[in-house]
């Protein structure tokens, strides 16, 4: 007797690799019990009509009891073994019903109309519950069993079907198909509504996560939302490279500018420096006043040496970019010279989530953090100071100058420090950059970053400036 299985999520099921396992898990339209009751009632009505018309043997009336008990028995079994959580078992159960249905069809002697009606109901159930795969296996089993029973019991002598049996068969099949089609329509509408709601919630979640991502470094946000890291109070020891910077002259500028203009300038500075940091893979920890704290090596790391080199490379790029920003600010009427100073230290720190269960801060603590902050405070405008540990990791690629030793709280011995000069490849006659800054003139040229499209425009601008200076010189 055909019945329909309740929809469940099959994503957690183990796959056995059989062809039936690959069948699409279509969501059935009728509850399990109701579907079986309707199918069993149609089967029983066809058998009764056939017995009344005399084309079926009276012994087939015992199938009425089985048809009445079947839905209740299957519901009881389903509850006991929790079949509602196993869609594949539901499909196997429907295949069992195809076997029983094939036997009943065989007992009818393949009387055309009743046999066709029962077959249609069973195949319709297979198509909806399991798609073409279940329909194929169901048809195969039904045909095999019906053929076996017919081989044992024989085929009907008269292939004409009386009116009553034909009417009941067609009416029962029609009602079964119409009712299940109606439930399919209702469920399809419900699924569409649910899909729309899920899509709406998904868009809201994306918008919310995008807003929340502004408060976290991209690396931290990604590790949380991809499930790589749990949001709980936990820390670990790890070797990182820590960077601090601030703006020399910012305090004087804050006394000259209005708060609104100062805020806009500071946000613009933070925005551009953040882009530089992210380009090198740095994790932005926090902004404090005009200071920036960044670290390399967590939550993702390319190795201690690569992290240190990326950190110092970022600092050099920031120092160079500050010259471009200074020209822009000068054109906006800001005359106070703003210089960036930076400190970098490498070593073991404690990194992770600090705070309370309901309010956490992903940050780092340790003496290397204090050392980087101290180096930033000691640095002159435009200077990058690094610890000996950082120097040992970057010295092959970056030229540094020994600046002696300093005493730092938390360190038992004086700490050797070094000043970053530049990349070794950019030193000497083959360097890719040229820079000059005087009253009324500022230029920063990095030929390695100029594309062919901009080269002619830059040459024309330089020639025009040179012609102007020559004309003024000749007029004197």
Automatic annotation (TrEMBL):
GO biological process, one term: cAMP biosynthetic process
Keywords: Membrane, Transmembrane, Transmembrane helix
SUPFAM superfamilies the record matches: Nucleotide cyclase (SSF55073)
Name of the protein: Adenylate cyclase, class 3
Organism encoding this protein: Marinobacter daqiaonensis
Domain Guanylate cyclase: 241-376
Residue ranges of the region described as Disordered: 1-21
A Pfam family per the record: Guanylate_cyc
InterPro entries reported in the protein's UniProt record: A/G_cyclase, Adenylyl/Guanylyl_Cyclase_3/4, MASE2, Nucleotide_cyclase
Transmembrane segments: 37-55, 61-77, 89-110, 140-156, 162-183
GO molecular function: adenylate cyclase activity
């Amino acid at each position: 007797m055909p019945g329909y299985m309740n929809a469940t999520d099959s994503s957690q099921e183990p796959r056995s690799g059989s062809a039936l396992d690959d069948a699409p898990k279509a969501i059935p339209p009728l509850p399990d019990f109701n579907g079986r009751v309707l199918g069993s009632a149609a089967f029983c009505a066809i058998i009764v009509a056939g017995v009344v018309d005399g084309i079926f043997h009276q012994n087939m009336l015992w199938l009425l009891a089985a048809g009445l008990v079947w839905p209740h028995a299957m519901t009881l079994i389903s509850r006991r073994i929790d079949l509602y959580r196993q869609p594949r078992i539901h499909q196997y159960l429907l295949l069992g019903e195809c076997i029983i249905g094939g036997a009943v069809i065989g007992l009818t002697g393949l009387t055309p109309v009743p046999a066709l009606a029962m077959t249609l109901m069973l195949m319709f159930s297979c198509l909806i519950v399991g798609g073409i795969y279940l329909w194929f296996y169901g048809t195969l089993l039904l045909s095999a069993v019906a053929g076996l029973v017919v081989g044992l019991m024989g085929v009907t002598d008269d292939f004409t079907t009386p009116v009553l049996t034909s009417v009941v068969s067609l009416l029962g099949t029609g009602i079964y198909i119409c009712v299940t089609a109606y439930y399919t329509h209702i469920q399809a509408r419900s699924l569409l509504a649910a899909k729309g709601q899920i899509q709406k919630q998904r868009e809201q979640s994306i918008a919310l996560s995008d807003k929340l991502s502004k408060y976290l470094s991209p690396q931290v946000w990604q590790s949380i939302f991809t499930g790589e890291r749990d949001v709980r109070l936990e820390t670990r020891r790890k070797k990182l490279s820590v960077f601090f910077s601030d703006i020399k002259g910012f305090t004087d500028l804050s006394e000259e500018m209005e708060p609104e203009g100062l805020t806009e300038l500071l946000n613009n500075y933070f925005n551009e420096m953040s882009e530089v940091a992210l380009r090198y893979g740095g994790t932005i920890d926090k902004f404090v006043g005009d200071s920036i704290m960044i670290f390399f090596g967590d939550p993702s790391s390319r190795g201690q040496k690569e992290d240190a080199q990326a950190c110092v490379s970022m600092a050099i790029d920031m120092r160079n970019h500050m010259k471009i920003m200074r020209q822009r600010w000068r054109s906006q009427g800001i005359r106070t010279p703003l210089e960036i100073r930076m400190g970098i230290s490498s070593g073991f720190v404690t990194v992770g989530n600090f705070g309370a269960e309901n309010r956490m801060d992903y940050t780092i603590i340790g003496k290397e953090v204090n050392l980087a902050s101290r180096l930033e405070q000691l640095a002159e405008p435009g200077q990058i100071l690094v610890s000996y540990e950082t120097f040992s990791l970057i010295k092959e690629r970056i030229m540094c100058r020994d600046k002696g030793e300093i005493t730092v709280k938390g360190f038992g011995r004086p700490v050797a420090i070094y000043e970053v000069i530049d990349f070794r490849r950019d030193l000497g006659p083959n360097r890719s950059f040229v820079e000059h800054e005087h009253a009324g003139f500022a230029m920063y040229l990095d030929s390695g970053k100029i594309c062919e499209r901009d080269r002619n425009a830059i040459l024309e601008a330089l020639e025009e400036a040179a012609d102007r200076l020559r004309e003024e010189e000749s007029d004197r």
